[in-house]
Structure formats: structure tokens, C-alpha cells
């Protein structure tokens, strides 16, 4: 078996050594190294893997923000957490925000939010005083889930307005995530405290209504396929390139 493996390796390597010599005659070693370094960078810059419900950890009693999308700065995350902590202490109503990088294919932000709501709060009683606001930062698609005891203060129409207007309008004006979440936090905390609803933000008519809602499904899938093909090619070439560059810099046996 060892002999067969060694013979096979020799058969593969010998023609490649000849090819390498031809490449070295055409291109300087620095150019070859630059090409393979570029491939390595592309491999490291691959898009983040999709997020499923069970990739989101369970929360502690003092966890109000889970920012896997990394779009909220630390100071604002602290401010949001303090606001929701005070709301919970004063009213018993609890709000949590989750940001994710991207969803699995076939998953929507709404289905993900409902599944996470069920995971965190399995029973109707658990859900009763809860609000969950989720956004996928790749597409800027958002969704909200609310418990039954919350609906008297936050009816579905108002909850949808928070998710689709208060949260998303600042994102259409340059992806202002911090402003979006601060505005949403302020509106939710006032509504759930029994104060008048300040309403959604005014929309600047100069802002494109298409905003930053990402790519259509077919285009996104096409890009994903291109990434996969590129990664497979890179994963094949880079290890081989490392070996052959090593051979290239070794002193020739004929010198």
C-alpha cells in the first residue's frame, strides 16, 4: 500500500515540477507569490456562515442585546440595556434585541424571530410580557414578536411600525444602526410604560424607498454559488501552491 501511494504521489508531482519550471521561466517568483497571496486573502475574506436559531445563546436575566451582527457600539449597547432593564423593573415588560449577520437559505427574518421567541419562551405564560426585535444586517430585513400581555399596549400594527419604520428608516439613510436601535428603544420603552406613542420617524423623500434591503433571492444565491466555487478552487490551489513555491526557492540540484 505504501509503495502504491508513493508511486502515485511521484506520478502527480513529477509533471507538476516540469510545469513549475515552465512557469518560472515566464513569471518572476514574486509575481507567482503575489497571485497565491491574493488567493489566500480571498479565502480569509469569505462571507460569514449563516446563523440558525440554535446559534443564538440563551440569555441571562440581565441580557437585553445580542449583537452578533456587530453593528451597535458599546456605549449605545449599554444605554439600550439600561433602558430595557429599567423598563422591566418598572413595568414587568421585557424587550430584547438580536442582530445577526445572515440567515440560512429558506429562512426569513420573521420565521427566525418566531422560532427564537419559541426557543427562549416555550409557553404562552413565558411569552406573555416579552418583546423580541430581530434584524438580519446582510439584508436589513427585520421582524418583531410580542406576547399576549404586551399587545394591549403594543398592538400588532404598532409593533410592525417599530420594526419596519422606526428601525429601518435610519438604515435607508446610510446604515445608521446606532440611531435606529436608539430610536426603537426609546419608542418601545415609552409605549410599554404607558406613555403616548411618539410614532415613527419622518421619512425624507430624498431617500430611496428601496433603501438597503439587500439583493433579491436569485442574485444572492448566484453570488453564494460563485463564492463556493471560488473557495473550492482556492482550497485546492493554496496547499499545492505552498509546496511548489517551496520547491521553487530551493537551490537547483543542477547548480
Protein model, in words:
The chain has 255 residues and is an alpha/beta fold. The chain has 2 domains: 2-45 and 220-249, no CATH class; 53-192, Roll (Diaminopimelate Epimerase, Chain A, domain 1). 55% of the residues lie in helices and 9% in strands. The protein has a 4-stranded mixed β-sheet with strand order 1-2-3-4, with helices on both faces. α3 links the parallel β1 (65-67) and β2 (94-100). The longest helix has 33 residues, at 217-249. The chain starts with a helix and ends in a 6-residue tail after the last helix.
Describe the structure using short key phrases:
single chain; 255 residues; alpha/beta; Diaminopimelate Epimerase, Chain A, domain 1; 2 domains; disordered N terminus
**Percentage of residues in strands:** 5-15%
Strand order of the largest sheet: 1-2-3-4
- One letter per element, helices H and strands E, the order comes to HHEHEHHEEHHHH
* Proportion in helices: 40-55%
* Mean residue pLDDT: 79
The number of helices is 9
Radius of gyration: 27 Å
Short note summarizing the structure:
The protein has about 260 residues and is an alpha/beta fold.
Would you spell out the secondary-structure blueprint of this structure?
Layout: H1 2-26, H2 29-44, E1 65-67, H3 74-91, E2 94-100, H4 109-120, H5 124-127, E3 130-136, E4 141-146, H6 156-166, H7 169-172, H8 177-192, H9 217-249
Helix pairs in contact: 2-9, 3-8
